[in-house]
């Protein structure tokens, strides 16, 4: 780890850092400094063999949520930056918001947004960075049950549809482990990253407007159709 407070981090430097296998974090929202992180074991989600728990599959298939992409980046990162129920701290500070907002404007950052209710309101989602055929997940949030999980399922289906090769989660948590996330040794991750960066994924392989149905998502993940 290195102290990023002494270096002016630009969106271009940020992309080079991702390509080298490192990413920035802040201690908390009130600390303007950033530091670089390169975990010894890197979390990834399997694009082949992604696990969708049975109950969650039913929720996805029901389309109780409307899932869009790239329509409200500011609201998603604000949701991710909001204090959690179990902690008043958040690592997303103003510099993180500005940097990833700039990457979104450049087409390098993307969101998955989950809406519910009438009128529709944002109840969960995630954001991350896309380079080549690699997607680097940054943060997710939910305000109602299953919203972030549904976002994750839609994300992985979109990545598969778009020909991505790598879904980076930074670390493996208990939450991600249920979907099949695994920790790769640094040297293995770097090889997988180089392979993914040499190819091109297509984020827009599916529409962004919420018209992708849950059954399509599950089919893209190889899930069997609902029993009749």
CATH class membership: Alpha Beta
Terminal-residue CA separation:
53 Å
Largest sheet: 7 strands, mixed
Label the overall shape: globular
The CATH architecture assignment turns out to be 3-Layer(aba) Sandwich
Q: How are helices and strands ordered from N to C?
A: HEEEHEHHEEEHEHEHH
Return the average pLDDT rounded to an integer. Answer: 92
CATH-defined fold name: Aminopeptidase
Name the strands of the widest sheet in spatial order. 4-5-6-7-8-3-9
Taking pLDDT < 50 over at least 5 consecutive residues as the criterion, the unreliable ranges are: 1-6
Structural class: alpha+beta
Helix content class? 25-40%
| CA radius of gyration | 17 Å
CATH level 4 superfamily:
Leucyl/phenylalanyl-tRNA-protein transferase, C-terminal domain
The total beta strand count reads 9
Q: Any idea how many domains?
A: 1
């Amino acid at each position: 780890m290195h102290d990023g407070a002494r270096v002016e981090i630009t969106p271009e430097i940020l992309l080079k850092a991702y390509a080298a296998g490192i990413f920035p974090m802040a201690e908390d929202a009130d600390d303007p400094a950033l530091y670089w992180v390169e975990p010894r074991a890197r979390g990834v989600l399997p694009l082949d063999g992604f696990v969708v728990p049975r109950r969650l599959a039913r929720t996805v298939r029901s389309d109780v949520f409307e899932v869009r992409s790239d329509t409200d980046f500011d609201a998603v990162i604000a949701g991710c930056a909001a204090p959690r129920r179990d902690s008043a701290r958040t690592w997303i500070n103003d510099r993180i918001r500005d940097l990833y907002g700039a990457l979104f404007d450049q087409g390098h950052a993307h969101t998955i947004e989950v809406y519910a209710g009438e009128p529709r309101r944002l109840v969960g989602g995630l954001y991350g960075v896309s380079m080549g055929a690699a997607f680097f997940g940054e943060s997710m949030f939910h305000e109602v049950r299953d919203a972030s999980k549904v976002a994750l399922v839609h994300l992985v289906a979109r990545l598969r549809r778009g020909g991505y090769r790598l879904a980076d989660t930074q670390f493996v948590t208990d939450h991600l482990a249920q979907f099949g996330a695994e920790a790769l040794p640094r040297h293995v991750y770097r090889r997988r990253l180089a392979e993914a960066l040499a190819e091109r994924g297509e984020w827009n392989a599916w529409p962004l407007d919420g018209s992708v149905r849950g059954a399509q998502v599950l089919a893209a993940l190889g899930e069997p159709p609902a029993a009749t």
